[in-house]
Amino acid sequence: MTPSARIAAAIDILDSVVDAARGEGAPADRIVAEWARAHRFAGSKDRRAIRELVYDAIRHCGPIPASGRAAMLALAEQRPELAPLFDGSQYGPAVRGEGEPVATPGIAPEWLMAELANSGVDDEEAAALMDRAPLDLRVNTLKADRDTIEWRERGEPLAAPQGLRFASGTMVEQWPAYRDGLVEIQDHGSQLACAAVAARPGETVIDLCAGAGGKTLALAAAMDNSGTLLACDTDKRRLGNLSPRAARAGAGLIETMLLDPGRELEALRPWHARADAVLIDAPCSGTGTWRRKPEAKWRLTPQRLAQFGNVQDRLLDIAASLVRPGGRLVFVTCSLLDAEGSDRFAAFLERNPAWVCERPDLPLGRSRGEGIRLSPARDYTDGFFIARALMPC
After folding, report:
1. In which band, very low, low, confident or very high, does the pLDDT at 40 lie, cut at 50, 70 and 90?
2. What is the helix, strand, coil percentage profile of the chain, to 5?
3. What does the pLDDT average to over 39-64?
């Protein structure tokens, strides 16, 4: 493909990304993958270059652009070498017209930037949300140890006891260690969130919002396959991905429970006041994961943010009913917004004055309210809020 044809392809993909963001459609990575499958004539270098153009344009635009072309024209203003590629050639984009609309550069929409600022996120932290994320691994201690695996490439040891960092794009999935379940791909911040649970062998632990089970597998390793570990979620497809992952990891203690939204307490009644620990990795805006999903900034609205807060409050109350006296509750969101972090945890403590806050002792992060905040700028992790409370005996 010519450089101009790559620009035209990126514009087509961006049009789909913008439409999906407005209509809550597929995420950008899936749209890019679907384009690649439908255009197999494009070589690997072309696909990689087009993907980079798409994500560079998304990161460069603050508010949602009018079109993919407007987004790419904005990127061309930042990168002058792209401007001549709007040349009207056979497979390239049309020449830029006089007065043609160009997307507004920035980190996120103005209202969302204001929410970040009100949450103590300064300009440096906000800008880091648009960086590219590295690839972090967690060594699965059910099968291996960080110091004994023979690595194809040298990784950077992380503060998490079994964490290693590699360059973005490292083809870990092709390594025998990955295929054999010795390692899992997991952001360093996510590993530290699991460490905050302090799960121990023989305990009863509930992962209330397990999704596809990344944190569940980390809890299973911490428990050394001993005890009871219940993974719950309302998404059948995502929860269904856990069983094969658990088999590969050798995590035999995991039980799964598919929950009906709005009727979670009914299904979980047999577990009332039985858990030593409950992890609530609550659904949220995902502002802390923009390095991986930058188009998420275009999907969020004030109304949707309020809805997330309501869900988080309800999940905290459900989790509290499952913890035995002397047990603990850990609340996690991959967000830098107080509205779904420190504010939610403070509201929980106000509703439940008998509970005692116990700030997690983590090697990274800064205090935020009654919890800990991890951020890309200061901790080189995804953004997280992590808090823990104990139920007195």
Report:
1. confident
2. 45, 15, 40
3. 94
> Which residues, in sequence order, are CB contacts of 239 under 8 Å at separation 6+?
210, 211, 212, 213, 231, 232, 233, 256, 258
- 144 by Cβ neighbours in 10 Å (0-12 / 13-18 / 19+) ranks as middle
Structure tokens at 202: 């023989």
Per-residue pLDDT at 11 exceeds 90: yes
At residue 97, what is the residue type?
G
Q: In this structure, which CATH number among 3.40.30.10, 3.40.50.150, 1.20.120.80, 3.40.50.300 belongs to the domain 192-390? A: 3.40.50.150
3-state secondary structure at position 76: helix
Going by pLDDT thresholds of 50, 70 and 90, the confidence category of residue 177 is very high
Instruction: Give the CA angle between residues 195, 197, 202 to the nearest 5°.
Output: 105
Taking the chain, what is the end-to-end CA distance rounded to the nearest angstrom? 67
**pLDDT for res 180:** 94
Q: How far is residue 132's CA from residue 113's CA, in Å, rounded to a whole number?
A: 19
Q: Per-residue pLDDT tens for 337-390?
A: 999 999 999 999 999 999 999 999 999 999 999 999 999 999 999 999 999 999
Architecture of domain 135-185: 2-Layer Sandwich (3.30)
Is residue 330 packed enough to be buried (19+ CB in 10 Å), middle (13-18) or exposed (0-12)? buried
Is residue 24 over pLDDT 90?
no
Name the pTM for this structure.
Answer: 0.93
Tell me the three state secondary structure of residue 349.
helix
Specify the DSSP element, H or E, that contains 265: helix 264-267
Q: Which of 284, 334, 357, 393 is catalytic?
A: 334
Question: Is 177 within 8 Å of 143 (Cβ atoms)?
Answer: no
Task: Give 86's contacts (C-beta < 8 A, 6+ positions apart).
Answer: 4, 7, 73, 76, 92, 93, 94, 95, 96
Known catalytic residue at 209: no
Residue 143 CB burial class (10 angstroms; 0-12, 13-18, ≥19): middle
SS3 86: coil
What integer best gives the mean pLDDT of the chain? 95
